[in-house]
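Blinded run. Sample ID left blank on purpose so nobody reads anything into the name before looking at the predicted structure. Input follows.
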Amino acid sequence: FMNCIDAGGPYCPCHLAETSDCILCSQLSGKEFCQCKDWCGVCIYDQYIANGHRAKALRKTYTCTILEKHLSDKNLCIFTLKAPENLTRELVYPGSFIFLRSVKNTNYYDVPISIMEADIDTSTLKVALKLSGSKTKNLFKLNEKDEVFMRGPFSNGIMGLSNIYKAKAGTSLIIARGIGIAPSIPVMKKLHANGNKVISIIDREFDENFSEKYLDKYSSTVVYCNMMEGENLTDKFKTILNDLLTAENINLVHCGGPDILTYDILQLADSSLNFSCCNNSKMNCGEGICSSCTHHYKNDVIKKFCKVQMDPRNLFKDRKFI
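Blinded prediction complete.
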């Protein structure tokens, strides 16, 4: 099963419809007849015709202000940003992210950043940035009261979103490492709101535990553990994970970390377990146009991960790595 995160929404049909690359609509992906399999509530082809055979508008870019900057580690910076109320309301959900850059830079400096917290009462957003290259270095130089360009809202920062929403009144497991903890916080919050007991296994990576207040509020149990040595899971982590999967009736496992961590955990977890994980694809436009997020699969299938929403168990199945 594969879906499009924008299907039927205000940004659909998108520019992929104009190039016959629509993810869901067969007629907008080069086919002669309607072969719709995954109904999204509206006819995308009809919407395209009604809009004058054109795509709908792209996301807007807003000018926002940095209210607070907290350099909690030489490689970790947390911004609190003042944002428009309508944008903040669209970014409260798991998987929400934005593109951010200094007003002094061109659009080539856009950085995709997951939302750690969206406060609709104060219209503020909290994001965590890891220093990793030229783009983030420019953001680290910014200070309080500086302005930034913010483009959004985007929604596909998490794979397996449907599994998160249907996990209710049970026990859920969060596994998060380093900067992957930040996008896992809205997941944790949603699971807690759905009446789940949340157990979190955390690999901090940074000196400061920037997620502590969220863990205290939304998790019933927190276990700190070094998860990886090189590309392999540590024996301690595997023991903790296996014990929890055996002792608890887990309704969801969420992994916030690199693809190798997600892949290794999937090999250990029972195939019947519901799963979600961070979308770690590289992105530049977020609209499916630039193709930086594309992955190639068997039979020359190409998936644009800025828009494709799928179960994490299918992320690596039949995926080409060369």
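Unblinding after everyone has recorded impressions. The mean pLDDT is 94.
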